Each structure stands twice: as structure tokens, then as C-alpha cells.
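Figure 2 data, in text form.
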Amino acid sequence: MLHGHFRLVFLSDLHNKEFGYKNQELLDTIVSLQPDGVLIGGDQIVAKPGRSLDPGLFAAIRLSEQFPVFYACGNHEYRLKLYPDVYPQAYKEFRERIAESKIVYLENEYADTNLNGCPVRICGFEMKREYYDRFYRGNLPEEELARVFGQPDPNRYTILLAHHPGYQDTYFEYGANLTLSGHYHGGVVSFGRHHGLISPDFRVFSKYCRGHYKKNGKDHIISAGIGEHTIPVRIHNPREVVVIDVGDFS
């Protein structure tokens, strides 16, 4: 068993939302929590032709000046890369600005680090477009994760940043100690601990809209997100800055 403890703040689906001037209120909240690391689970920005990458990217860069920041792509970051004809130069600008900062951007890559003295591996999964399709109802093979990252290292606490929450069975099968997702924005209207009214891929009353799930000693946390996008409404669905305190683990 590995021993130790560390604190994480997990952000997902900001979608360029601002809380205070240049997101100062959000930044102050995170600073007050004093995390050992900040994890960004994707859709920090909005992919629309001509849309600025600020303020979502600016907030991430500001955070990286104070904390280790690990950032995995969501479907909006992926869209910039996938459709260069629609978003000319946007992905190039995005990656250049990331490279000029202290952010560790993980695009089907992992980073080994130490958080408060604990050995940690953070995997950022870039899911293929077909798995985001609004009408796709198939599975995500566990082999896709194993092919990209290899098997989890038993000598490190492994965190998987996987933006889409709907493939929970695959994430548990892969076996990361902790998987973090977002994407569903809490289901617009929240019903109880996990369910929401509708997801971006048109799943009604999905059980993967928010919350903490456990299976065989592994954890999956789904954030309801901070912002909103396609359906700009949140009912009984508070925005979330997720704080995770990790203790002794095996």
C-alpha cells in the first residue's frame, strides 16, 4: 500500500464562463482551498468560429502560476484540432499559449509527478470523435485506454481524466484509482445524487450526470461543471468546484 495524502481541485466545463473580473472570484476560491494540484477535465473554452479562447484559457494559465496544473482535452478542445478548416489557427494558438505557460497539457499522454510527496500518474484521454456522437450507443473498449497508457502502475496513484462520463464501466475495468469526468453539465435539471434531465448526447435521465461512484476500491467522480453551453440553463443544479482529499490508498 502507498501512503500519504494530497488535495486536488478538479474543474470541468467552464466554457469561458466568468466569475468576477477575469475570473478573479473563481481563482480566489481555488487559492483558498490550497490544493496540491489542479486538474482540468476539458471544455475550459468554447469552440465556435471566431470565438476567443479567453477567458477560460486565461484562468487556467493564472492557476498554473500558483499550482501544478494538469489539463486534459474535452470535446471543445478536440474540435479545434479536428476541424482546422472551421477553426483556422485556433488550435495552433491554443497549444502555443499552453506551451508558454506552466500547464501540463495531456492529449493521450500521461505525466508522472509527486503531490505532497506521493507518487502520482495523471492520464489525459483524448477520446475519438465517434464516442462523442450524440446518437452513439455502443461501448468504449478498455483496450483503447490500455493501448494509449499501458496498464496502471501499482507503484503510483493513477488518475484518469476522461471527459465523457458515459463509459464508466470501461473506466472501472481499466482500473485507475480515480477517474474524473464532466461533459454532462449536471443534466441541466438535477434529480438526486446522480441523475439529470438530459445530457449533451440526448440521454434522458442519465445516471452519469454528477456525483461520486465506487467499484472494487476504485473511484469515479463526475462533475456537474462550472459553466454551461448548448442549453444555457441550470435548475436545482449548482455549479461545482470539486475538492478531492486523497488519503492512504492501495
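Caption note: The chain has seven helices and 13 strands.
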